Amino acid sequence: MKPFTYERAESPAAAAKAAALTKGARFIAGGTNLLDLMKLEIEQPTHLIDVGRLPMAAIAPTPEGGLTIGAAATNTAVAAHADVRARYPVLSQAILAGGSPQLRNKASVGGNLLQRTRCAYFYDASKPCNKRAPGSGCGALEGLNRNAAIFGASQACIATHTSDMAVALAALNARVETISPSGDTRSIPLTDLHRLPGDMPHVETVLVPGELITAVTLPPPPVGGQAYRKVRDRASYAGGLASVAVAGGDLALGMVALKPWRAAGAERALRAGASPAEAMAAELEGASPRGRNDFKIPLVARLATAAIHEANGRGA
Amino acid sequence: MSSVADWEATPNPVKTNRAGLIGKPVDRYEGPLKVTGTAPYAYEVQPPSPPAYGVMIGAEIAVGRVTGADLAAARAAPGVLAVWTHENAPAQPPRGTKAHPRSSAGSRPALDGDRVTYWGQPVAFVVADTLENAVAAAHLVKLSYAPETPNVDFHGRLIDGVDPPGEKDVEVGDFEAGFKASPVQVDETWTTPIQNHCQMEPCASLAWWEGPDRCIAHTSVQMVKPAQHGLAETLGIDRDGVHLMTRYIGGGFGGKGQTYDDLTLAALAARELGRPVKVAFTRQQMMHGTIHRPATLQRVRLGAEKDGRLNAFSIMTWTHCHSDGAFTEHASNFARALYAAPNRLTGHRLVKLDLPHAGPMRAPGEASGTMSLEVAMDELAEKLGMDPVQLRIVNEPPVDPENGRPFSQRQLVRCLQEGAQLFGWDRRLPQPGQVRDGRWHVGLGMAAAIRGNFLLPAKCSFSVDAEGTITVRQGMTDIGTGTYTVLAQIAAETLGVPLGKVVVEIGDSELPPAPGSGGQFGAATAGSAALAAGVNLRRAVAELAVGDAGSPLHGGDPEAVTFQDGVIALENRSETLSDLIRRTRPEGLTVEGEIRPAQDAQRWSTQTYGAHFCEVGVDVVTGEVRVRRMLGVFAAGRILNAKTARSQLTGGMIWGVGAALTEGNAVDPRYGSLIAQDLAQYLVPAHADIGDLDAIMLDEVDDKANPMGIKGVGELGNSGASAAVANAIHNAVGVRVRDYPITPDKLLAALMARGL
Ligand SMILES: Cc1cc2nc3c(=O)[nH]c(=O)nc-3n(C[C@H](O)[C@H](O)[C@H](O)COP(=O)(O)OP(=O)(O)OC[C@H]3O[C@@H](n4cnc5c(N)ncnc54)[C@H](O)[C@@H]3O)c2cc1C
Ligand code: SF4
User: Fold this and answer.
1) Is B335 part of any domain?
2) Interface of chain A toward chain B, CB-CB under 8 angstroms
3) Among the four A30, A276, B49, B173, which has the fewest Cβ within 10 Å?
4) Is the pLDDT of residue B17 over 60?
5) Distance CA B455, CA B706 (A)
């Protein structure tokens, strides 16, 4: 691990400002993703700004009838929160489908959104990876890419975003609140936070350097049922092969793209009266699998169909 | 020389079990140390002076040469004490050198040449004052290579398979003719992937020197003597010059049956630097840098009569080993002892590849082989319209089908029948896909288990001191299995003292030698030597008492002396053990004992047996499988400790669940490297994967196995467990995936092919 300096920020604004002051500075919250990557020298920050203890862990109702969730709230706290469980069960289910209790106790909302891909070639510094070393190539492209994206991938990168929480937030039309080093704040639709890889897979979000996530805001819960389903190789403590979040008529897919994938095509078809299976078939027409991950097409179709029925109270 | 007849005829304290300690579910001797984190594993032992930290660097090619190294930046980095490649590493004797002809292992040099023969082979080494500095400097080492095209495609190179060294196919009768003539046939091929041991504790070593001829080494290894001898040969010193210790071991599973470059490099660097040096593998390095269970392809053919009796069977296994290796995953062998048939053909083909070293892993052979044969038996039962339990019973042989020897004990049928009853096997519907529980399709499956039983030569010493404390000393290891605990039980039972009055010292090359832990021979071998030493100490104490004028037992018959609750007695005359020793031998009394295989042991076939029953749920929407219930019933001789034995058996079963559903590592043919390099990618079962799982041990005593009548359990639970899972999946949904592990993607494809 490379030597680095460390500071504990006094306020969100101070944290963002400090991040702009030192080249190579990074925020750290729970550290469950960043520290692993630092040990492998995949991340090499020169300076860490601890935002985990900032007063931005509150979960509170908004005047509009929604909920605001502080970026430093732990995954456990969000999943267990009474309002979340009662009004946004899909979010609670999604969080509980991720990692292990120990990880969720440390992991923060902000860190969860910005966790980096679990592509095996990204983690193995002896292999080419455009995300880790821009221009080096993509080891996964012709490699063992069973878990690769089927939507929005490029020749430069075929990895997926592996957050469960973000999939539920995408279906719930959440917004991400931020503060910049200049002190400006803005609110970004969650579905616009992450970028598709294009030819710059190392640029992962629309955030500017030093921009700090302060909260996630949920609109009032949608009308209709909610459900989260995740498919994984083992029963817990495993990244997904695919997931789906249903929130009323809105639908997001996980582990199929480098961002939580809002299934807009399926939503449109559903609104036009298509059956869930037909709607998913429409959505998946746009998918481009790579051989080893062909199975994700029928898997997502079947999983999402079952989840839509489940959310509508008709069981699997 | 002892004989089986002697063992059977001679009573001993373990058989008599007067205090009832044998078999009792006694808590682990070292449990409190482990759960409080105070058991010093090799890397945590406190050396006499502050240690330096070594970090190994693995090759980033699978085959070729190291052509250059830019070490300047690493050398200049803070705290760096040494940076080595093959160009400047200390000279060591060529690999395999045995300067002492009776060494149990040859030299294991590290960084001994520019040749790279597998991805991740240690090719450079950095030592620094702190671990952080060593890791940071290691990242600054720049190596250049002349890579060659790796030959790593196992399935593409099956054609290169040859007989393993010194082996030939074993044919009985005429297999081809018998198979052709059989009215009911199964002919299918199974594949199993590379598996990694994934011990909790990675391989790690700490070494320092006491003068030029004496190296103190702590490491994590299953067998003490070969580790000591191999290190002495590598260092070019006398074998007694190495004092090797391995007191606590965080899992071995066969992967620590040998030492690795961590030990060699720690000892070499400690000598060069004149201070203690620690070296550990990282989790990532463990995958390539230590051995793995190789992949297999197994073709199984079964030919049966309509009544289910096997007329012909064959299991042919293709597997792979390192280009310089010869290790063979003997997946076909166990079948020779399990089922009889007049026509049989079994054998192996070995393909040499530029992959890391293949080697033994828990139940080598049986674990992989039952994944094909025990599923083929299920397929045969299906074709016959016969219950799979009944099919096994119909094929139960009267004598060992391989060599015609009588069985010392074979309670396979009882395991099958009791297991079937306890599990509720009669609720299984033979027609697959009949049972639903919400979104889950539920199915039941079973499989038989078999694993050989072994006894090796071993020694042990027992001491008694003036406090009446018994100390057991043995160059044995406890790899998490419970060795400490069962040795303490044997000692307490033999000398009639409470467990709290027993001290166990193992894992040390200066103690009486024992072969260590492996092949599930540990408890039988080490325990039998301990029993012998205990009996010798009993006799010595009895003679001391009757020969001592000051003892109330004076003049009595030493054979009649009893030992109980720390008191030795002859009818109504008694004194405490500590009084006797304090008076007659205040410095204490030490005796040795040993065990050797009986000269006539080969007259019997001695194996351990079991039966697995499993209930799975399959989500047909996603292809996910969850084990809901699993029961194993085992017959493995007398059980020394019901708790540690059960843990071994359930642990083995859980390994089987992992092998069936999640475990496997794949080779990227472009690099010759393994894809899964940490425990987030190599998936062993998590708690949520294991439902209601239990192991039951039948009452059994196998007096032909050893003087205690015990057998091994460490590997038995693994044998057959995966097949029970696979068979339950078939019963749930009516499809078979013969390419392990049975992951959702593969099962989904099979389900869709069946229109589900
Ligand atoms: C073994 C394992 C299994 C896992 N399995 C799952 C799983 O199944 N599903 C799942 O969803 N996740 C999984 N995870 C990922 C886990 O959810 C993330 O590691 C965690 O959510 C990250 O949160 P953190 O607070 O620890 O982030 P950190 O590690 O502290 O930070 C992660 C990143 O976010 C940045 N960051 C943190 N806070 C902010 C902020 N407020 N504003 C801007 N940037 C910020 C950091 O700079 C860093 O780049 C797994 C992780 C591990 C190690
Ligand atoms: S898929 Fe993306 S993350 Fe994976 S190797 Fe390619 S560029 Fe790197």
Assistant:
1) no
2) 1-3, 39-41, 100, 118, 120, 123-124, 126-127, 139, 142-144, 146, 231-239, 241, 295, 298-299, 302-303, 305-306, 315-316
3) B49
4) yes
5) 7
Q: Which ligand is nearest to the CA of A106?
A: 1
Cα-Cα-Cα-Cα dihedral sign, residues B175, B181, B182, B186: positive
Give the predicted TM-score (pTM) of the model.
0.97
- Rounded to a whole number of angstroms, the distance from the CA of B222 to the nearest CA of chain A is 30
B536 and B426 part of one domain = no
Residues in CB range of A240: below 8 A, 6 or more apart: A97, A162, A164, A230, A231, A232, A254, A255
| A130 pocket-lining for ligand 2 (C-beta < 6 Å) | yes
- Name the domain count of chain B: 2
Residue B540 lies in a domain: yes
Residues B748 and B670 in one domain: yes
CB count within 10 Å of CB A4 equals: 17
Ligand 2: centre distance to CA A139 (Å)? 6
User: At residue B113, what is the residue type?
Assistant: G
| Strand bridging mode B343-353 / B310-322 | parallel
Residue ending a domain, choose from B596, B614, B645: B596
Nearest by CB to B132, which of A1, A142, A303?
Answer: A1
Alpha-carbon distance of B117 to B597, in angstroms, equals: 39
Q: Is B681's CB within 8 Å of A120's CB?
A: yes
Q: Is B715 a catalytic residue?
A: yes
B543 part of a folded domain: yes
In chain B, % of residues over pLDDT 70: 100
pLDDT tens, residue by residue, B383-427: 999 999 999 999 999 999 999 999 999 999 999 999 999 999 999
Residue among B701, B24, B731, B695 nearest B422 (CA): B695
Residues B650 and B543 in one domain: no
Are B490 and B582 members of one domain?
yes
Same domain, B709 and B638: yes
Asked if B450 and B460 sit in the same domain, the reply is no
Amino acid sitting at position B250:
G
Q: How far is the CA of A35 from the centre of ligand 1 (A)?
A: 10
Q: Are residues B413 and B497 in the same domain?
A: no
pLDDT > 90 fraction of chain B, expressed in percent and rounded: 99
Is the peptide bond prior to B741 cis by the omega test (within 30 degrees of 0)?
yes
Name the phi and psi angles at B442, rounded to 5.
Answer: -110, 135
Judge if the beta carbon of residue A266 lies within 6 A of ligand 2: no
CB-CB under 8 Å, A303 with B745? no
Give the largest CA-CA distance in chain A.
58
Q: Which domain holds residue B721?
A: 399-454+602-753
- Domains of chain A from N-terminus onward: 5-53 (3.30.43.10), 59-113+160-311 (3.30.465.10)
Q: What is the CATH number of the domain that holds B418?
A: 3.30.365.10
CA distance B751 to chain A (A): 11
CB contacts, 8 Å: B685 with chain A:
234
| In a domain? residue B155 | no
- Sort out which chain A residues have CB atoms less than 8 A from B135's CB and list them: 1, 39
- Claim to verify: residue B610 and residue B740 sit in the same structural domain: yes
